[in-house]
Amino acid sequence: MRIDLHAHSSVSDGTDTPAELVAAAREAGLDAVAITDHDSTSGWTEAAEAARSLGVTLVPGMEVSCRTPEGISVHVLSYLHDPQHEGLLEEITKAKDARLSRAEHMVSLLAEDYPLSWDDVTHHVAPGATVGRPHIADALVAAGIVEDRTEAFATILSSRSRYFLQHYAPEPALAVELVRAAGGVPVFAHPVAEARGRTVGEGTYHDMIDAGLAGLEVYHRDNPEDRRPFLLELAEQNGLFVTGSSDYHGLGKVNRLGENTTSPEVLGEIERQARGAVVVRG
Ligand code: AMP
Ligand code: FE
Ligand code: FE
Ligand code: ZN
Fold first, then answer.
1. pLDDT value at position 109?
2. How far is the CA of 254 from the centre of ligand 1 (A)?
3. What is the pTM for the complete model shown?
4. Residues 167-191, buried b or exposed e (16+ Cβ, 10 A)?
5. Which one of the ligands is nearest to 11 CA?
6. Is 74 a member of any domain?
7. 190 C-alpha to center of ligand 1: Å?
8. Number of domains in the chain
9. Which of 42, 149, 174, 255 is most buried by its number of CB atoms within 10 A?
10. Domain containing 196 — which CATH number?
11. If we measure between CA atoms, which residue out of 96, 108, 94, 98 comes closest to residue 136?
């Protein structure tokens, strides 16, 4: 069984539609894939239909944007939660709305120095999709200002850039609590992704564990090898399971489906803990 539990579609900042994502998973030889768009579950229905017709198992999920009081960005993956749960829905809607005004504001700052307009950006956002820096990157690429998303993130759109702005997002422990309240299974995504910006200290892990954290995404290309023993030990000591995933974004990132995988035992554990939605067997 080859299982990849972290992938994005055009419902957020991936370039494949939900159906194309499932087809790509099949093409990559995966038995199961999770659709985990940022702050949105709008892709679930289309992905489920594709999974049934293509014979791929789909794990409905989402990646919740969070921020610590010190301003460190944290992502919490949620698997199999109830997409209608009010408390969780309210927080992701707030974050999604804040992402939109933040992107508009970033573009207005960029427009002072580059030939770029908000219209150029919306061109790259599917209707209703969660807006992020990747969409601004696409507009910068189209305008010939950078070569690709990777270059945009290394330069103009980096979290250390003068054009970078933060957006509202719930604290990680609150997100974990809400995911559990919605019957979902919360996993800390790429916890030590240092290249993206500052990462959290042990206190945040313990706050998240106390709130009901279920697992750590250890095998992810953005977690440096030398930081993984720390994660494995923390998981062992606190009864957390460990996942591995690609964080596929279609053409938007070099990450390939199945480049890291999760064991069938862990997927079984996720299903046992989940109360809000079920896996779609293809
Ligand atoms: P945002 O959530 O708007 O701050 O943008 C961060 C998102 O951009 C992450 O969730 C990734 O999906 C994506 N991202 C981060 N780094 C890169 C990169 N080097 N190339 C392409 N996409 C990236
Ligand atoms: Fe993303
Ligand atoms: Fe993430
Ligand atoms: Zn992701």
1. 98
2. 12
3. 0.98
4. bebbbbbbbbbbbbbbbbbbbbbbb
5. 2
6. yes
7. 12
8. 1
9. 149
10. 3.20.20.140
11. 108
Name the average pLDDT for the chain.
Answer: 98
Considering every ligand atom shown, identify the ligand nearest to the alpha carbon of residue 75 and give its number.
Answer: 3
In a domain, 107, yes or no: no
E strand map for 165-282: 185-188, 215-219, 241-244
The first and second tokens of residue 11, run together, are 């419902």
Tell whether 121 is covered by a domain: no
Task: State the average pLDDT over residues 169-179.
Answer: 98
| Residue tagged 């990747």 (tokens) | 134
Whether 259 is covered by a domain: the verdict is: yes
Q: Which domain holds residue 35?
A: 3-93+167-273
Q: What is the DSSP letter of 129?
A: P
Whether the Cβ atoms of residue 73 and residue 42 lie closer than 8 Å to each other: no
pLDDT in the model for residue 198: 95
Q: What pLDDT band is residue 126 in, cutting at 50, 70 and 90?
A: very high
CA of 77 to the centre of ligand 4 (A): 8
